[in-house]
Structures are given as C-alpha cells and as structure tokens.
C-alpha cells in the first residue's frame, strides 16, 4: 500500500483493513486525514481484489474527532467581508464532506470497528460506513454542539435513518456520551463485543462472510440500499430492475446456481 | 373462492385468510404463485366484505422463496444481443415486482404470519405486507446474495424503512439467518409466539380487532402510512386533509360518535 | 406570560414550561387550545431568552385528545353541496394542522413529558415535539380509528419516522393502548420514569443540559434534523454547508473554543 | 389486428396507425374507448415490429372528449354515504387515468395528428403522447372547466411541462379555444399543416424517420425523457448510466458504427 | 373594503381589483405594502364572492420594486455577531417571502396587468401571480443583481417554470430591461396590449370569463397547476383523483350538465 | 494559462475565453478533451478574477461531438462476463458525465457561442452551459440516436428544462438537424447572429455586462437557478433565505447602494 501519514492500510484475504493511525493524538482528524481518506477509499473502490473494508482506530480509541487546530486555522483565513468569508467557509465545509462521501460511495461494504472514544467527527465518519460494531464500553458522542456549531460533515444527515428521529435529536442537542451497549440498543451499532480483541475478531468474521459472497451481488445490494435512503419505493423498484437487467447476465449467477445444485461452496471472481 | 393452484383462500368473519399452499415444495414461489397472487389481492381489494387479510404458509414453513426452476428458465430465453436480453430481463423483473406491489397496494391491511423458513423472496413478500408476526424459532434470511444477485422484488426497497439502515445492510450483505425473536428485536416482526398455533391464534386476534373498526378509517390510515414512506411531512399533511375532506362526511363518523356517547360497540358497514 | 385559558406558561432559567391546563377535562383540546398553542409557540420561537421548551399536562393526564364537542360542531356548518362541504372541511383540517406545525417549527427544542392518558390528538401533538419522555404506566393510543377517521393532524405523517413502518401500522389500525414502557421499547419515547415527579425532574434535567449549550448550535441542529425528515442526504449536506457558512462566523464558536482550551464551562449569549 | 369498436388499428412499415373510429359521434370517448385503448397500447408496447405509433381521429375531428353519457352514468351508482361515494369516484378516476397512462408508458414514441376539434379529454390524451402535430385550423380547448370540474385524466399534470406555467393556466381557467397555429406558437404542437392530408403525410414522414433508427436507441431516449419530467438532473444522469451499462453492449451500436464508417444506411433489428 | 395605505381594493361583478397605490413613489414596495398584501389576499381567498383577482399599479408604472429605504433599515439592526445577524436576516427574508406566498396560495386566479416599470420586486410579485399581461412598451427587469444581491423573494424560484432555464439566466445575470413585447415572445406575459386602457379592458375581459365559470372547477384547476410545479406526474394524478373524489359530488357538475344539455349559460353559486 | 492539447484558454478583462481547439478534427471530443475540461472549469471556478466564461470552438465548427475512436476503444476493454462489462461501462459513462458536470457546477456563468456544427456530444455540452448563442446558420443535432444509443452525457437530462418536453422529444428521436434560427425560436439559444464575428462580438458584450456586476450577486443567482431545476418552490425559497442570510452582509450590497444613491457605476471586488 502507499505510504500514508494518518492511516495504515492492509489488504489480506480480500479484506482491506484501514486503520486511523495517530494513536498519540487520539486519532484526531488532521489535514492529512482528510485528504488521505479520499485516496484510500478511491483505491478500495477501484481495486477489484478488495471485497470489503474494515475501518478501525489504532491504540485505545477510534477517534476523538476533528483536530481542533484545523478549525482554528480556518478562522485565520477570514477577510473583512462577511459574504466572502461565508463563501470560503461554505466551500471548506463541502470539501470536508467530500472526504466522508468517499467512504459512503465506496462500492464495497465498509464496517466500522469502534473502541474507546468515538466523538464529534468520529460519529460523522461511522454514519458514513455501512455497519458499525463496538466494544460494550466504547464512548460515543455528537460533540459538535459543545464547540458551538451544528455538525456539518454528515451526522445530522445520516443518523436519523439509522436510529430514528427521536433518539437522534437527544444525542445531537445534549452532546451526551453513550456507551457501546446503549448504542446497540438504539440500533446505532449492530453488535457489541466484550473488548477490543473480540471486536476485531468479530468484525473480521463478518467481513470474511461478505468477502465470500458474489461481489456483483454485494455491490448491487449496497448501491440499492444507499439509493433507498433518498428515493421512493417505486423509484427504487424501477432502478433495481434496470440495474439487474445487466447484472443478471452475470457469471456469478451461474456459479451460484451450480454450487447450489451441487451443494458446494461457490467461488466468485473479483 | 376461485380455484387456485399455489394458494388456498378463505373468507370468514370479514377476515380473508390467504395461505401459500405448496407445502411439499416448502411453498417455493412458482409461476402459478406469481400470477395468482395478483388475482387474490385484487379480489381482496375490491371485495367490500374483506376488511383485513392474513397471509401464511401451509405446512412447516412460510416460504423458501422463488422457485429456482423459474430463474433458470429465464436464462433460456436469452438471445445473442446483450441489450435485447437486458430489455427482456428488465421487463421480467418489473412483472415479478408487480405481484408484490399488488399486496402492497391492497387497500386492506395485510398481516403476515411466519413460521419455519422465510427466505429470499419470502422476505420480499413479507416486507410488502403491513405487519409481520412470527414464531420465536422462525428462520428468516435475505438469501438472494447467495444466488449471486441483488434482491430485486422489494426487500432492499422496503426493509430499511422498517428496521433502519444499519441492520438492513448486515442482513443483505451476509445473507445470514435470524430467528423470529431476533427479527422482533430489530422491529422486523412486531411480536413473536411460542409456536404455530399460538401464532395463528394471535394474528387472528389482531385481525379481528382491525375488522371491527371503521373500514373508512382503516383504509384511510393505510393509504396515509403507505404515502408517508415516500413523501415529505408537508405533502402528507396536505394529502390527508384533501383525503379526509371527503371521508369526514362518512356515516362511520356518526356511527362512532353515537357509539362513543352511548358507550356501546359501534357496528360499521363494509 | 400572557393570560391563556387552556394553558399555563412559565419561563425560568431559560426553560419555558408549557402546561396544558384543563385537568378537569383530561386536558381535552378545545377551541382555545388550538388557537393559544400557536401564540405560545410563536412567543417561544421569537423570545431569545427561551432556549428550550418542556410541554406537559396538568393533573393526572397529558391529554385525552381533541374535544369531541369540537368535531361535532364542524358538522353543523355543513350545507347542501358535498363539494363545498369538502372544501370547508379541508380548510378546517389545514387550520388544525397549523397549530401543531407551530410546535414542529419552533426553533427551540420541545420536550414532551407524558403521564396518564395520551390519546388521539395527544399522539399527534407529541410526534410534533423533538423528544418524548413518559412515566412507565402512561397510556398512549392512536384513538382516531375509533372515531371512524384516519388521524389527520400529524400522527400518521410523523410517527413512522420515529418508530418505523411496521409498528406504526399496528398502532394506527388497532387503536390499542400501549404503556410508557412499551412506547420506550419502540423508540416512541426516549426514556421512562417511575412516576410523575421523577418524570418532571428527569425532563427538566435534560432541558437544563440543552439550555446550557450554544443556542446557535442547538437551533442549527434542530433545523438540520427537521430538514432531513424530507430531504436527500446530498441535499442535506449542501444545506448544512450553506447554513454553517454564516453560522460559523458565530461568537459562540469562539466562546466554545476558549472554554475548551481553558477547560471551563462556556457561557453563551441568548 | 384484433377487432375494436372504438378504434381502427393498422400496422405497416413498422408504423402502427391507431385511429379513433367513432366519427359520427365526433370520436367522443365512450366505455369501449377507455378499455380498448389499454389493449391497443399494450399490444404496441409488446410487439417488436411496432417501432412508432401515429394516433389520429377518423372523420372531421380528432375527438370531442369524454362521452357525456359516461359521466352521467357514474352519478347513478352513488349511494347514501358521501365517504363511500368519494371512494367509488376516486377509484373510477384512477381507472380512467390508467387508460392514458398506457399511452404515456408505451415504450415506442406516439405521435398525435390533430384535425378539427380536440376538446376536454382530447387534450388529456394528446398530452400523454410524445409529440403533437395539427392542422392550422384545428380547435383545441381544455373544456373540463365548462363541465364544472378540474380536468383529472392528465391535462393539468402534463401540460405545464410542455408549454410552461403561465399559458397553461389561461387555457385551464378560461376553457377558451385555440387554433392549431396558436397551439404551435405555444409549443403545444410541434408543427402545423395546411389541411388533413398534409398533416397525415407530414406526421407519417416523421414516423418513418423514427422507424428507421435503432429501436434500442429510440426506446432508451423515450424512457430517459419521460423519467426527466419527474427526477433531478443528478438522478437522471445516474439512471441513464445504469441503463446504458446494459444497452451499450447492443448490436445496434455495432451496426451503427459500421454504417457510419462505410457511409451507408444502417438496418436495425426490431 | 378596509382602509389600506399602499393599496386600493375594489370588488365588483365578482372580480377583485387590487391596485398598488403609491404612484408618486413609482409604487415602490414599502413596509405597509408588505403587510397589507397579506391581509388583502387572505380576504380575497376567504371571500366567496371573489372569483378572480386583477392586480395592477396606479399611475404610470406597475412597480419599481422594493423600497430602498427598507433595505437600508435592515442593516441598522445588525449587531456584533455575524451568526446572529445572519439569523435575523434569514427570518426577515422568510417574512418578505410570505407576503408573495399569500398571492401564490390565494385559491382564486390572480391576473397581473403590467404597464411602465416592473422592476426587481415587481418581477418577484408577478411571477407569484397566475397569469401576466402587459402593454407593449412596459419595461421589465430583474434588477436585484444591480443591488449586489441574488433575488430572494421568488423570481429565481418561479421564473424558470414560466420561461425556461436559458432565458431566465440571461435576465437574472445581466439585469437587462425587456419590453412587454419581448416578455410576450418569451412566454413571461401571455398577451400584450397597445396601451394602458387596452390592457385593463383586455385583462378584465379575461377575468370576466373566469368569473363566469364554476368556482369549484377553477379553484381545483389552480390547486392542481400549482401542485404540478413541484410534484411528479404520478403524484399529480393521485392527488387530482383524491381531490375530485369529493369535488365531483358538486352541485356545479349538475348545473353544468343541465346547462350543456339545454344549451344555456350556467349560473354557479359562489 | 497551463498548456492544453484540446483547448486554448485566455483570461482578459475578467472574462475567461475557453476555445475547443482541434479545428482540423471538427473539434471532436477526444480523451484529452474529457480530462482537460475538468481542469479548466475547476480553474475558472476557483480563480476569483474569472467572473464569466465564454466557450466556443476554433475554426468553422463548434464541435462534431464525441470522437468515434473513443467509443470504439471502450468496446475493446470488454471481457467475457456481461455483468462486469456493464459495471465497467457504467463507470465509464459516469466519468464522462463528470466532465460536463464540471461545466454545470462552475460557479461563474458559462456562455456558449456556437457556429457551424454542434452535434451529439456538442449538444450535451451546450446544455450544461448557462446560456447559448449561435449564428443563424449553425447546425445543431442530437446525433446519438444515429449511433444506436440514447444520449448519456446530459442532453436528455437538461434539454427538456430549456425547450419543453414536446420539442425535445422530436429532436431526440429523429436526430434531425436544426439551424441556429430554429434553435432560437425553440428557446434553445437565446439569440442568433449573422456570422461568427458578430456572434463573438455579441457574446462578449453580454459577458462584459455580467462581469461588471457584483460577483456575489451573480454567483448566488446561478446557484439558485441551478438549484431550482430540481427542487420545489418552497425548498427554493428556504434555500435562498439561508444563502442570503450570509451573503447580505456583503460589501457588494453597500457598494451597490452607494453607487445607486450617487448614480455612479459600482466597482465590485472579485
């Protein structure tokens, strides 16, 4: 893999492991983080061998969120005209959002493995993933409200579709901490694990299952589920019919059928 | 009722009981199934006496999903031109979708009672119903991923609105089995029952309650809830005001008022 | 506060406490209720000192819903022409909806504290609030179906986004009672409390936390979350970037930053 | 062709000519009309040999709109309950709409050739076609306003997308007549012709051009343009990419390329 | 009529004539204008006798747009915090928009008669009307660009639906003047007249035609056309079916039928 | 400017002139074209000095559309599996679309000056521009239908919003040529000019007018008009209020006011 400053990336057995790698800074999201994450997920998207991605944090925590120094720096670019400052700020926010949109739009499933702190930007990041798993004692919090701002890189957009409108509001307005176990009972994370080792073992087990499936089927399913966050059921049915019109001429369908008939495990091409 | 090959249909006490009736084939969905289901739900929709529908499977299972022979047959119709094949396939998928849209658009509530296997197309079918009930040990699974394709007759469209985005993705990508009890904890089924007899008894009890209500009120509520899956809150408020503009001149309102004042049980016309 | 007939309103420590105040009528929603609630929430919206609103019911119950006398009265205005009656009815419903839209659109978070009965219009009202809290033995029910009509002042529109599609349908079609505790397990209320005193104490504690946060951040978060009920993720990201373009030039951001650096509690202007 | 009462249908040189054939009744739309039109356009949709459809009226007029006897008959089915009448009426309107939706959704382009009167339902019908052509002295009018009702089978839905919002409103509120020439200057018809013979000759000339093109390309274009009436540009770009993913493996592309290179006229399979 | 400062209002023969009445100020839109217009159009909406509204300007001009003094005054309310200023400004703009939304949402058609200048806010106003008519030498211009701001009370929202995307952009970016005649060729105004007297005579003639039609039919048509600016064709068809479910039980339908049969002019109740 | 192979780019007097520069190939769009256009419009977007862009073609023609060699090359990448080919093709189309989306999303207005041929991809390109101007004898044609495919880089998405649904369909299905003058009468181009020199002079004159306006106002107007192609009027009004909340604190507003009061020409900062 290429040499990253804020990440460590491994590819083994068709699973890409993307690790936020600034443990001494609680994996705070600095300038390197925001640019490298785009390259990494573009690579994961385009590399046929990558079937699924696991995203975790090095050290004791997943991430403490955006590096405060970055926020402070933006203010230094402000000039005298409020409108031109606003334009500058708007484009800056859109740029940060693009980093997590790269995660969201990666055609392969992304599984977040969360231990320790997952704060502020950390929540924005995990809501851009497909699924979330945590240690029982992880600490999650929409911390932006404490910085005097409304979260603007994805949490407020994606969270209500995962946990419903009522709980999302309490988390956003109060900035309160919840444990991994509370997150599970809300549906924010799918499962919890006793500790970090169990978490990583469990998430890789799920990743291995996904990696063994037809990549055509998995990517098609991801595209549909992402599409359905924003479209009507009628639109979704039409879209999947159009999509599968091409995809059902796939070799994977024949491989699956043959395996099913012969009661053997299918092997799909990348 | 008319003579169906893949179903058995009964109407008693204003409740239509629609039973998938190919127990020797685990209620797999064959060609008869896909055409008859449209006729049955059109009949349920148009027959005033039907106030509510219960949908279940004969024998030990709800349904093992689409008959694999049907899938295999489609491929035999393919010609030499990939574009014309795609067009053929697209229309074929749209046609299958129409079978479950008939369930979704039936103006009467449809309650699914699920025991044993509910796999692949079975999940597509139950997500097109209003509510779902299961035995604790039912086995549910989005099996399409194992056939090398993205589910295309409704699961990926309707499921996230029922159980949220995070859990839906895990089920779709892994094709893992969940029990009735797990399905309940996710919100996929509303209640579980110890065994099949308790399930049927429980579901019919709920059906009887619904059948005793004003049909004008129940159908209006169904229309609104279906509408809200795809429309904004402002659109929904406008639509319900327009709908009720006519419906509030209903005799049922007077019947209900009178019953309420006299503390008696109201009797509504079909 | 101004003199209301159906409400009692207090403002203390930046928290407005709005109490439905017709305990002898189980806080049924009469004509005064529907007009005064608009004035009260407009006041709460425009008064900078109000940071958060708690909504509760005086006496043993939250509310038994719309005053039946009001419904009966509408019918007396009907003339001979069904179309003109429908037009009259449609405008009447739109007017009632506007009363709860005033709650929904109040820029400050609204917390409902629910004890005893919360029936019919009571459910319409609490779904227009940001968050809901209840005593374990509260009794909640979508009662409209028993009056022969589809709920038309907000329940059917807002409820599915809070508890999902499957459970919402059962509540709407059956009109069955659920307890506070059942409501919590569905996600309809966020937390339950043993009794009324604990409920009020608990809800005010949450309100105090919210009142201590940056009002710019809290209002921005509310706007975003309300916006996301109806818009795509891409639209939401663009909107929050545009919103924050101005809002990030806020003094609150500097206050929060300074407090964060000095590890002190920030004090935000109204 | 099958034997129709309200139509005459011919297929020649890959062009289906569908003629409303009740000239003695000014081609008023009776019960036969509304059911047969569905069969005819389903046939046109499914018959590969049909590449394009021309729709015209026998005799001196295109159509005087819905048969007034049909409207009158509906009222005779009304019972005592306004709500149940409304439900009946709503379903009746949806059924009429489905007849013109069959025209709209036919995968082959439909060209309307308009002479003489085109009134009321006639306008609903031609706005469901792809393109419209008329004699200079044709008389077009949204006549529904004169029957005391808002047009409900498509005119108000489709017209503004063709001629813009301002002119559509004048036509709808006043029910005034416009000539073919005025219709052309508004963009309602694409071209005008001096008389009926010139009209038919001109429209068939355009139909022949379309029939000579790749059917894969023409149908794809129609699907896209219909889709764009209701979707965002971003959605449209995604949809066309998904559609063409399959369709660009078409033999037609190779046929066209070869013809282009050799400067010959391509011949496409149906 | 009540006593207005910025307007003169007359009601005669079921036509309300609303005249902007500050000719000495070129009918610039001052504070009185923005509040009175809401009252006037609410009155027009609720008064059954009003069947149609004509909107014109007293003196030589329609309107020179927003009173510059008003804009200047807003700036004086600004405080030190850019975020709180932005919040103030946003609410101020929403309030101005509400004034023209009252015109847009009036259930009766509104016809604008335009002579002389129609600049800036004048364009925002006329695009909120149903139809526009002008003298050949009227001068229309989107003047906001010259004040250093994007038009924010409706022009940029409503204009493209009237004249298409390409011409709207040229007018908005350049702020150039166009004559009434040029406006007509773009579809911005429906017809032009030689001078003011001909304009008023012509517009009242059209208004009289509309006033003679069934008010149930005209209002229904307006609701549908407004609805279609923002909804899909499928949504529009469903909505009109639901609307007409009630409205087709109208006395107007019988009146129209009877008149049609007896070839007499129908007389509709308000 | 940087060194481009397929373009020539000049910046003078705040106007960027982007010239497609392969006159010997009729400005056919080759691989260089598709990548360089992204860089150029990103540069135009980010360079404050660029206020407006003029896009034209070197030599006798605007552009003959996509280079056929490029299309042919794609086919060579196809493998044995139709599904994987479809995936490859879909991503390829999305990539081409991104090139013209860069034009569409450039924050500065883009004016297309069209002479000679503007075919196929040329139409896709000019519909992504803000405004279009042409010589009277230019030749425009949606040529994709002749290549056996539905246009997939923007024409079918953007054209109907410019010229309406009826004319767009005729152009798309027939692939017929229209002259500049016919394009003007349809609203596809805003104005025509006698010859190339007059065209360039005329377009630059319009560009100069736009360049003299407040850039804050022009960019805001462009954002709003682009937004309105896809959003409801209510959404648009909310968005512009949020946008202007920040932008009305602009220095440009003061500059414009002062100039207006002193009747002088304003000078705005970039």
UniProtKB/TrEMBL annotation, chains A, B, C, D, E, F:
Pathway this chain belongs to: Lipid metabolism; fatty acid beta-oxidation
Keywords assigned: Fatty acid metabolism, Isomerase, Lipid metabolism
PROSITE patterns per the UniProt record, alphabetical: ENOYL_COA_HYDRATASE (PS00166)
Tagged with keyword Protein transport: no
UniProt-listed NCBIfam families: PRK06142.1
Family named by the database record: Belongs to the enoyl-CoA hydratase/isomerase family.
Protein name as it appears in the record: Crotonase/enoyl-CoA hydratase family protein
Organism: Zestomonas insulae
């Amino acid at each position: 893999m290429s040499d990253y400053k804020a990440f460590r990336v491994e590819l083994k057995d068709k699973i890409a492991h993307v690790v936020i790698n600034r443990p001494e800074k609680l994996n705070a999201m600095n300038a390197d983080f925001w640019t490298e994450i785009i390259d990494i997920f573009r690579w994961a998207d385009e590399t046929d061998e990558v079937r699924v991605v696991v995203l975790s944090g090095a050290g004791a925590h997943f991430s403490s969120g955006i590096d405060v120094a970055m926020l402070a720096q933006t203010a230094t670019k402000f000039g005298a005209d409020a409108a031109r400052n606003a334009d500058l700020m708007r484009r800056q926010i859109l740029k940060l959002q693009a980093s997590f949109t790269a995660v969201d739009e990666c055609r392969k499933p992304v599984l977040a493995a969360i231990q320790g702190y997952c704060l502020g930007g950390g929540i924005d990041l995990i809501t851009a993933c497909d699924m979330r798993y945590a240690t029982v004692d992880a600490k999650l919090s929409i911390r932006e409200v404490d910085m005097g701002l409304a979260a603007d890189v994805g949490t407020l957009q994606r969270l209500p579709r995962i946990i419903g409108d009522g709980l999302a509001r309490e988390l956003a307005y109060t900035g309160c901490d919840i444990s991994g176990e509370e997150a599970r009972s809300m549906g924010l994370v799918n499962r919890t694990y006793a500790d970090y080792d169990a978490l990583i073992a469990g998430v890789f087990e799920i990743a291995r299952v996904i990696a063994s499936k037809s990549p055509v089927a998995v990517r098609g399913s991801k595209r549909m589920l992402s599409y359905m966050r924003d479209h009507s059921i009628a639109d979704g049915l039409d879209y999947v019919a159009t999509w599968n019109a091409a995809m059902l001429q796939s070799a994977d369908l024949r491989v699956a059928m043959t395996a099913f008939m012969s009661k053997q495990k299918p092997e799909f091409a990348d």
